[in-house]
Amino acid sequence: MNVRRRLISATAVTAATALGLGALSACSSDSAATGNTDKFDVVASFYPMAFLAEQIGGDHANVTSLTEPGQEPHDLEISTKQRAQLEEADAALFLKGLQPAVDEAVSQTGIKTKIDAATLTTLEDHGNTEHSHEGEEAHAEEGHSEEEEHGRDPHVWLDPVKYAEVAQGVGKAFEKADPDHAADYKKNTAALVEKLNGLNGDFENGLKNTKTKVFFTNHAAFGYLAERYGLTQEAISGLDPESEPSGARVRELQQEAKADGVTTVFYETLVSDKTAKTLARDANLKTDVLDPLEGITDKSRGDDYFQVMEANLKALQTALGAK
User: Fold this and answer.
1) Dist. CA 223–CA 288, nearest whole Å
2) Could you state, in chain order, the average pLDDT of each consecutive group of 10 residues for the chain (323 residues)?
3) Which residue, among 215, 218, 220, has the nearest Cα to 230 in the 3D structure?
4) What is residue 84's DSSP assignment?
5) What is the pTM of this model?
6) What count of other Cβ atoms lies within 10 Å of the Cβ of residue 112?
7) Where in the chain does DSSP place strands (E)?
8) How far apart are CA 24 and CA 212, in angstroms?
9) Contacts of residue 258, Cβ cutoff 8 Å, sequence gap at least 6
10) Measured between alpha carbons, how far is 5 from 251 in angstroms, rounded to an integer?
11) pLDDT the model gives residue 146
12) CA 190 to the chain's CA centroid
């Protein structure tokens, strides 16, 4: 769709074909595909953004992701090929504050449609997560307002209501950027929002009556989810999900587990479970997976956002003693 691509010579196309630079899936990070399609080309920063782009774009969009399946999104570094991919895209969809390397790369490109999911809903500060500190350190010299922006919790996709708000904003951006297919983008957005509303209903009903409202996580990613459904998230390690908790923190959580009837320590699919298992062993608790959905891998309990979120709901119901 990009006008520059329509000027690619037959020789260039032939060369690209010879190199096997075909269309890629939404979870690929190879930068070649975006420049070789007449569809609405969207480069997404990581899985939750790629999923939105795929669902809303449908048959009209070619979606690629900068983050590979199984790659920890926060560790992403942008390659020269990926920068070229961004330049050739029709739109970039990202969540400012989560991946500093992506934020920088997008800001330096001439891409016309830059969709920052962080501007499409309200971000809140859920404490000293690893992301807030990374943001504060990276932008310490850019003023207080910039620090506040990056101190906010970016994990909005784990709250179906906030994710639906983002979806609506993305849909409108797609309609504006590619008006020829606006009607389909509007229809696809409405269908996605309806499914997210249904997921919200499942969580509301499934977590309404539980023996405890407190759950332990390796990584403070579930602040929005906890707030939405009246729960309390206690993260083991503040800055680094792979760091060992201090003895004092372990004792504190042991006491809280007894006081609040906590049964389970949750860990993730993309980071080590060592910290969670250390606490569980010391506190005589169970362990289970609560997936922050930063990427889909073979270890994921489902093939897409909705399947994994339903698995998360079941894990929470079990751990919290749903009645």
Assistant:
1) 18
2) 41 38 39 61 98 98 95 91 95 96 96 97 72 37 43 92 98 98 98 98 98 92 96 77 69 91 90 83 91 93 97 98 94
3) 215
4) H
5) 0.82
6) 11
7) 40-44, 61-65, 91-94, 113-116, 214-217, 232-235, 264-267, 286-289
8) 44
9) none
10) 60
11) 43
12) 21
DSSP state of 124: B
Strands in 286-289's sheet, in edge-to-edge order, are 232-235, 214-217, 264-267, 286-289
195 class by beta-carbon count within 10 Å (0-12 exposed, 13-18 middle, 19+ buried): middle
Distance CA 27, CA 40 (A): 17
Q: Is the dihedral of CA 193, 195, 201, 203 positive or negative?
A: negative
Question: What single DSSP character describes residue 120?
Answer: S
Q: How far, in Å, CA of 61 to CA of 181, rounded? A: 10
* 8-state DSSP, 31: S
Tokens 């010391």 belong to which residue?
A: 282
Tokens found for residue 105: 């790369």
| Amino acid present at 181 | H
Per-residue CA distances from 304 to 30, 50, 156, 296 (Å): 21, 11, 17, 7
The pairing of strands 214-217 and 264-267 is parallel
Q: Look at residue 278 in the predicted model and tell me its pLDDT.
A: 82
Which is nearest to 91 in space by CA: 53, 119, 56, 120?
A: 53
- The DSSP element (H or E) to which 50 belongs, if any, is helix 47-57
Measured in whole angstroms, the distance separating CA 316 from the mean position of its chain's CA atoms is 19
Phi-psi region of 106 (alpha: psi -120 to 50; beta: other; left: phi over 0): alpha
